[in-house]
## 1
Amino acid sequence: MNRNVLKLLPLLALIPLQLIGFADALPQEPQGIEELVTLAKEYEKAGNANQAVYYYDKVANAYWRANDLRNAIIHFEKAIENIRKVGNSNGEKLLHISVGLLYSELGDYSNAQQSFEEALSIANATGMKQDIGQILQNISTTQIEQGKYQEALVTLGKIEPIAQELGDQKLLRNVYYNYNRAYEGLKNTEKAAEYFNLYAMLTKKIQAEEARKKELEAKAMVESAGKVVQQVAQEREQTVKKLFETSKELDEREQSLKEVEKLTREQQMQIELLNAEMKLRDAVIKNQRLLQRVYVGIILFSLAFALVLYYAYVQKRRANKLLEEKNEEISRQHDAISRQADELRELNALKDKIFSIIAHDLRSPLFSLITMLNIAKEGHFTAESFKEILDELLINVNYTTSLLENLLTWAKNQMHGTKVNPKNFDLGQLVNSSIQLLNETAETKEIKLKNSIAEGTYVFADTDMADIVIRNLISNAIKFCNAGDKITVWNSVAEGMVTVCVEDTGIGMTDDVLQKLFGTQINSMPGTKNEKGTGLGLILCKEFIQMNGGAIWAESKPAKGSKFFFTLPVASL
């Protein structure tokens, strides 16, 4: 809670009530709270509402100073009951403000707002715009503390023209501060920053005006000190002149007393000269002391003025730092929103591509398979043509199976997030399993598969993810190889990482195609026998390798084959 904002009217709430006509001729003041309570009740019972209000107010303020806020509220409310009997609306307004401030300190902003609104009703009736503006400012603060940001904005909209009409810069500064808090509560960072800038600029202006006022006061003090120094100098000149005249007078006396006995004359002269010297010395000492006091006063004033300037400088730096932090926060939020928007656009494009694949690439092979099976069922194929159809059906089924597996794996990873379950396993055995599954497809295209990873090459990773990566990379290699080509899987170990390479002697790729392989866009090219693909396989490979702490990349030249590399951590056995 910002008590400095809530207590915009601290003096109004604590003005002694006898100064505004609430007390008669007062007896000797009692010391204890209990004596004050007793007097208040006695005057209330006797029907003397003025005196009852006076003592209830003193009791409430005593409890307030003792930080007993609940008892302070109780006795302020008793004072309000009595003051209504008197009909002094201005005093009632002040008491309501005090109650509102107490509820605010207790964090009871609902009751605080109600008290301020009762004070506002009285202020509206009297038409005192200064009081209306200050009370509305307190109400806006309680609304913000209660999370009633829209209501606070309406209230602040009433205060701002009042502050501008009165030329009250401090009230206007507090209005801008509460605008900033309300818009922060509404998550409107742009508006919050706008009003914070207005608040900071107005605060800077007020501080500059106050510093200028203090500077003028300091100059006046310096000028006054200069006049004192000048007066002391004049007095010193007069003293020297007087001493000169005295000396001259002594000379004249000396001449007139020449006939007097020599011894007596010399003694008298010595006495007079001694007295004159003592007077001169006293005058010099007095002058020096006065000058010392003036110089000390100037030094103390200069130190005080320097402290005021330093305090203003510190406040300025603090405000500038707060502004910089706000600007950095806004910039970070803007960058985060931009990144999220880019990610959403990419995901949306990916979603559209997935639906296109499901609608076309998945449906077409299935319809083709159903059509061929129906024709075969009706006996329209010869044994030789049926064998060719079976080869084509095998390719379609393999493609459809791979597509479904990649689609389901990708969808699971995107919707629910795949949990990595790393463990130590033999990479050579995993590659052997993948080659056995894909060997029939490779033989159909007359392509040789070779595993050059020795058994006993252990890595630490998620086995299922690694299996999907290896099968996708070997399937892609088969897709882009011709009859007689060869696919080899080999590895190397360095710096705690196992580097795996799936190398083929196929048709290779251009630099443009190579750069697009591991992006977020789905790209797919037909194979050497017009095999279709989805482009999802490499996206899955990149995600799974990165989730296991590795990296993936490729090297290729047209007509010179391709090499797909990925890394996994070495197992700690």
## 2
Amino acid sequence: MGEDWGEQLKELIRRQADVREMGGPERVKRQHDGGRLTVRERVDKLADAGTFHEIGTVAGSADYDAAGNLIKLNASNCVMGRATLDGRPVVISGDDFTQRGGSADATIREKAAYPEEMARELRIPIIRLIEGSGGGGSVKTIETTGRPNLPGGIGSKYDLMLQNMSYIPVVALGLGSVAGLGAARLAGSHYSIMVKETSAMFVAGPPVVSGLGEDLTKQELGGWKIQLAAGGVDDAVDTEEEAFDQSRKFLSYLPSSIDDLAQQEPNSDPVNRRDPSLFNIIPHNPKQAYNMRRIVDAVVDKGSFFEMADRFGRPIITGFARLDGWPVAVMASDPLFSGGAWTSDACEKIIRFMDMAQTFHLPIVYLCDCPGFAVGLEAEKTRTIRLGVRVMAAMSQVTVPWCSIIVRNAFGVAGGAHRPAGRFSMRYAWISGAWGSLPLAGGIEAAYKAEIEAADDPQAKLDEIEERLEKLRSPFRTAETFAVEEIIDPRATRSILCDFANLAAKRRETGPSSFGMRP
């Protein structure tokens, strides 16, 4: 008979039991009393049932008696491993706030870095469940370690979390107060979510900033309204369970890595469906706004539009959708904000979204109604033109298939940036299309100032010139010279876009892009 390893198995089981207690009953209760799940409860609700394969189950800080016998194994504050989401392999990495609030005192750096490395090498998505400083520092660290921590010192692997954005989908959930490195891990993702009443994100929390004379609550400093408006986080939901659902939806549009292709799903929505409301949705009055989201919903597969960052850069709408089952990246102007003119925030939003589409080889559809860049003092103070030029440069770098639909306006430099320059892309214009160097409104007074002022009846002269130019600005005049490829009945848009998506699927590429995703 061979030797019995029963004692060693008992010790393994005991150590694993110690770790599963996390920070102990009192701290677990405090977590629940704050309206938050523990990290292990989060993993169980997020992953497909029974699929979580934990790694590092007995990593932690052990207490021994004088004889060298184990008293207690205190878990590290990182719970991580592999699982499946809707049958798809993923890596999950979660912060255990019951262990020193997720600070460095309870962190094993190698364990915290391991899931990032594993996800990239296996080419599968990673989901970060973040609470606390996410392995960042604590003032007590100096006393507990006997030395100060040098940020970015030898052995630091923080770059992994940023590099991963160029290889695999990264989802980050802020599920409590998130600061320091934890905030960086939340922002350094393709899709980030907060829970409205229990989450907050900041570089440093209220106790630190109070020293600067700013006495603010967590929500006042870094609550969801602050972060979504600033573009620091993409989305906010009411419960942690909703955050898990949103994570699954987001990942459903993306491939598992840059080496894979996003998959077509079965589609029951006819590709030739014509929505009659599209024919009258654009007002004849160019100063009147309308609901662009109604147009998006009308042309994509029913119920498939997944919007991102809806409170930031609001003149532009961004999100994923499906066309005949194929995932596509959708950008659409929103005339309800700045008339659809590009602000500096809108420019930043467009750049980041195009980067994501390029990284994961998703075709881009742009529903354009852009009267140009935002103008005025605020536009100048927020360097709108510099960021606008960055959009143009980023757009010219994009190589994925592109289709533009000019819904109404395309004026000025920003209006001209509705498709990549210098390469083939598909472009159509609705019969409501209007374009030029400047909109007629306001431009006539400037261009014909002397003629108008010299007239016996200036208003009649202005009306006469406006009527004459209105006839000349017809999109059909442009189409006569093939300066616009095709003018279409708005009701034909869905069939055209589905045709585009099917053609784009035939020439999809995999592998690294010529440039990586910029956070």
